[in-house]
Design brief:
- The complex is a heterodimer.
- Chain A is an alpha/beta fold.
- Chain A folds into two domains: 220 residues, 3-Layer(aba) Sandwich (Rossmann fold), CATH 3.40.50.300; 67 residues, no CATH class.
- In chain A, 26% of the residues lie in helices and 25% in strands.
- In chain A, strands 6-7-8-3-9-10-12-11 form an eight-stranded mixed β-sheet, sandwiched between helices.
- In chain A, helix 6 links the parallel strand 7 and strand 8.
- By secondary structure, chain B is of the alpha/beta class.
- Chain B has two domains: 235 residues, P-loop containing nucleotide triphosphate hydrolases (Rossmann fold), CATH 3.40.50.300; 84 residues, no CATH class.
- In chain B, the strands form two sheets. Chain B has a nine-stranded mixed β-sheet with strand order 6-7-8-3-9-10-13-12-11, with helices on both faces.
- In chain B, a hairpin with a 5-residue loop joins strand 1 and strand 2.
- The chains are: A alpha/beta, B alpha/beta.
- The interface between A and B is large, with 37 and 37 residues.
C-alpha cells in the first residue's frame, strides 16, 4: 500500500467556530494508482489534498493518521513534514501560474530549489523531463513572465516531480485551462505516472468527466466525508451511493439535448460544516433516506475496491 | 430580433495604445425570439467581447449590431434598451453588494423603471418572478448574499432581468461557477424561458452545456466564426477541423479519450470552404454547404489552398 489515510479529521478555525472540513476520511491509494478526488465546492476535496502536504495556519489536525509507504506522515507538524515534502509527497498547486518566483530564471530557480534539498541538478535529465511535457530546453534561461500560462503550468509539473515523489497531489490543475490544453495536461499527468516519475497520484477536481479520462479509481466527497470510492468505470456506470448516482445523471454530455432528454439537478444544498447534522450528511437531499440514516453509515466495502457510505448500499 | 453584421472589435493595447488587438473580426449572426444561441469558444476567442458589445458595455469598432432593426450603438435612450435586453455574468457573488440584503437588486429595478408601482403590487411581481426561476421567496427575500448559494444568487439575477419583461438575455458563462448538482437546473430554466418568447445569447466555453440548451451554435476561433448552424448539425456533423478538435478534446463520461476510434478522429482532408460544391453560397468568409450551416476556411495546416503562397482570405470586395 502506498498511501493509507485513516479517519483523518481536519478543521478550520473561523470566528464563528470550527468548520469540520474533513470529518473522518479513510481510504487507501495503491502503488501506481491515479485516484480522482471529485466533489462540489465546500466538500473538503481540496482540504484533503492540501492536508497531505501542508496544513496552513487556519487548519487544525484533529485526529486520524496518514501513512505513506509504511512510514507515518506527521501531517500535524509542519516542520517535521518538511523532510517528506517534495521528496515523498509533492503538489501541483491550483494556481501554478503564480507559483514561480518572478525574479529568477527557471533554470536558476530549479537549481536553488534542488540545492535546498541537498541535490544537484542533472541538466540532461532536466531537459528530458521538460521534453516530456513538450517544453524546449531554452525555457531554463527564461523568466516566468516570458512564458504563457500553459507553459508555466508545465514547468511546475516538471519541478514538482523532480525528486520522483511517491505521491503527487494535483489540485484542480486543469480547471483554468481551455478544453484542448486540458486534454494535453491530463495526458501529461498520465505520462508522469507511466514514466515512473511519480508512484501514485491524487487528482483533485470538480470535473468527473475529465478525471474519468485518466484516473484508475474515483473517490467522491460530500460534506467533509467520502461518499464512495470505486474503479473509475464503476463510479460512472454503476455507482451505489445515491449522491453519486444523482450527480452522474445530472451531468450534461455532448450530444444530450434538453429537448430530447431533460436532466435534473439535486434539490437542496449541502449542510453547513460549522454544525453538521448527525448521521448521513446527504440525508436531507436523498430520495432513499429512511430512519436508519440518522445514524452515520460506515464507509464499507461492498465489492472488491468499491466502498460506499450508505445504509442502502451495504 | 438581434442581428450582428460584420462586427469587429479592436482594442488598443500597449503603451499609449500604440498596438492594436483584434478581439473580434467580421462576426455576423442572428438571435431570434424564443431561441437559445450558444456562442462557444476558448479563452481569447472574443465570445465575451461580443456579449459586452450587445449589452453596450463595449463599443463596436466596425460593423453594426441591430436590435429590432435599430442600431444598438446609436440608441438615444439606453434605458429603453435595457428594459428589453439584460445580461447575467459569470460570478454571481460579485453581482451583489455584500452590505445590503440580496433582494435590493429588485428594489433598484423598481426605483429606476417602475417608480409608480405600489410596494404591494411590486412584491407580487417579485414573487412571481422568483417563482419563474423556481426560488422560494421566503428563502431568499431579506437574506444577505453570503447566506445564499451561488445557484440561488444566479437565479435571483435572472429573476431581476425577468422583472423588466426582457426579450433578450445575454448569459455570459453563468453556469461555470455553479456546482454540478445545481447547474443543470439553471440550464433547464434558460431553456424553459424560450416558451415565453425570450431570446438567449448563451456565451460559454463548455461544449456539453452549449449543446444541452441551444438551438443554434456559433463556434468562435480567434475572433472569427469557424462554424455556425443548428446545434445538432454543428456537433453532429462538424465541418470545420477546429470544431472537431474541440469535440474530440471534451472529456465525456462513458467514453475515454484513448478509446475513441481513429475514424472518429480522422478529419476530412479537404477544406470545407475551398472544396465546396459549385454553386454553394458564400456569405462573407463563410460558405454554406448545407442550409443554414456555415463554415469558414480551415486555414493553414488543414486547407490545401491555404498553403499555396498566393492564398489569402477573400477581401471585403469579393464577399457576396
Amino acid at each position: 500500500m502506498s498511501l493509507t489515510v485513516t479517519d483523518l479529521r481536519v478543521h478550520y478555525r473561523t470566528p464563528r467556530g470550527e468548520v469540520r472540513a474533513l470529518d473522518g476520511v479513510t481510504f487507501t491509494v495503491a502503488d501506481g494508482e491515479i485516484m480522482g478526488l471529485a466533489g462540489e465546492s465546500g466538500s473538503g476535496k481540496s482540504t484533503l489534498g492540501t492536508s497531505l502536504v501542508r496544513l496552513d495556519g487556519r487548519m487544525r489536525h484533529v485526529g486520524g493518521t496518514v501513512e505513506l509507504d509504511g512510514v507515518p506522515l506527521p501531517v500535524a507538524d509542519s516542520a517535521a513534514m518538511d523532510r517528506f515534502r517534495f521528496r515523498a509527497v509533492s503538489v501541483i498547486p491550483q494556481y501554478s501560474m503564480s507559483a514561480l518566483n518572478p525574479t529568477r530564471k527557471i533554470g536558476k530557480m530549479v537549481a536553488e530549489l534542488l540545492a535546498s534539498r541537498g541535490e544537484r541538478p542533472d541538466r540532461a535529465e532536466l531537459e528530458r523531463r521538460l521534453a516530456l511535457v513538450g517544453l524546449p530546453p531554452d525555457v531554463l534561461g527564461r523568466y516566468p513572465i516570458e512564458l504563457s500560462g500553459g507553459m508555466k503550468q508545465r514547468v511546475v509539473m516538471v519541478v514538482s516531480t523532480l525528486l520522483n515523489p511517491s505521491l503527487l497531489i494535483a489540485d484542480e490543475v486543469t480547471s483554468a485551462l481551455d478544453v484542448s490544453s486540458q486534454k494535453a495536461v491530463a495526458g501529461m499527468l498520465l505520462g508522469l505516472r507511466d514514466e515512473g516519475l511519480v508512484t501514485s497520484m491524487i487528482m483533485v477536481t470538480h470535473d468527473i468527466s475529465l478525471v474519468y479520462q485518466i484516473a484508475d479509481t474515483i473517490a467522491v466527497m460530500y460534506a467533509g466525508r467520502l461518499a464512495e470510492k470505486a474503479p473509475a468505470d464503476v463510479i460512472v456506470t454503476a455507482p451505489r451511493h445515491p449522491y453519486t448516482r444523482l450527480l452522474i445523471s445530472s451531468l450534461p454530455e455532448v450530444g444530450v439535448r434538453q429537448a430530447e432528454r431533460r436532466l435534473d439537478g439535486i434539490p437542496g444544498t449541502p449542510p453547513s460544516l460549522l454544525d453538521p447534522p448527525e448521521g448521513c450528511r446527504f440525508r436531507d437531499r436523498c430520495p432513499l433516506a429512511f430512519d436508519r440514516c440518522a445514524e452515520r453509515p460506515p464507509f464499507a466495502e461492498v465489492a472488491p475496491g468499491h466502498s460506499v457510505a450508505c445504509w442502502k448500499a451495504v | 430580433m438581434l442581428r450582428l453584421d460584420g462586427v469587429s472589435k479592436i482594442y488598443r493595447a500597449g503603451p499609449f495604445g500604440g498596438r492594436e488587438l483584434r478581439a473580434v473580426s467580421g462576426v455576423g449572426f442572428e438571435v431570434n425570439a424564443g431561441e437559445v444561441v450558444s456562442l462557444i469558444g476558448e479563452s481569447g476567442s472574443g465570445k465575451s467581447t461580443i456579449g459586452r458589445m450587445v449589452l453596450r458595455l463595449a463599443s463596436v469598432t466596425e460593423g453594426t449590431i441591430t436590435f429590432d432593426g435599430e442600431d444598438v450603438s446609436a440608441i438615444r435612450s439606453p434605458k429603453a434598451y435595457y428594459r428589453q435586453v439584460q445580461g447575467v455574468f459569470q460570478d454571481p457573488f460579485s453581482g451583489f453588494n455584500p452590505i445590503f440584503a440580496a433582494d435590493r437588486v429588485f428594489e433598484m429595478i423598481r426605483r429606476e423603471y417602475f417608480p409608480r408601482v405600489s410596494r404591494a403590487a411590486w412584491r407580487e411581481r417579485v414573487e412571481s418572478a422568483l417563482a419563474g426561476v423556481r426560488l422560494d421567496p421566503g428563502q431568499v427575500l431579506g437574506r444577505y448574499p453570503h447566506q445564499l448559494s451561488g445557484g440561488q444568487l444566479q437565479r435571483m439575477l435572472i429573476a431581476r432581468a425577468l422583472l423588466l419583461d426582457i426579450r433578450l438575455l445575454v448569459a455570459d458563462e453563468i453556469i461555470s461557477m455553479l456546482d454540478a448538482s445545481t447547474r443543470v437546473d439553471v440550464l433547464n430554466l434558460l431553456a424553459d424561458l424560450r416558451s415565453r418568447g425570450l431570446g438567449v445569447l448563451f456565451v460559454t466555453h463548455d461544449l456539453s452545456l452549449g449543446t444541452y440548451v441551444s438551438d443554434r451554435t456559433v463556434v468562435l476561433r480567434r475572433g472569427r466564426i469557424a462554424e455556425m448552424g443548428p446545434t445538432e448539425r454543428v456537433f453532429g456533423d462538424p465541418l470545420h477541423p477546429y470544431t472537431r478538435t474541440l469535440l474530440d478534446s471534451v472529456p465525456r463520461l462513458h467514453v475515454k479519450w484513448a478509446e475513441r476510434r481513429d475514424e472518429e478522429r480522422a478529419g476530412r482532408t479537404v477544406c470545407p470552404f475551398h472544396d465546396r460544391a459549385p454553386g454553394t453560397p458564400v456569405r462573407g468568409d463563410l460558405a454554406e454547404p448545407e442550409k443554414d450551416h456555415h463554415v469558414a476556411c480551415a486555414g493553414p495546416g488543414a486547407c490545401p489552398a491555404a498553403e499555396e503562397p498566393e492564398f489569402r482570405q477573400p477581401s471585403a470586395k469579393e464577399r457576396v
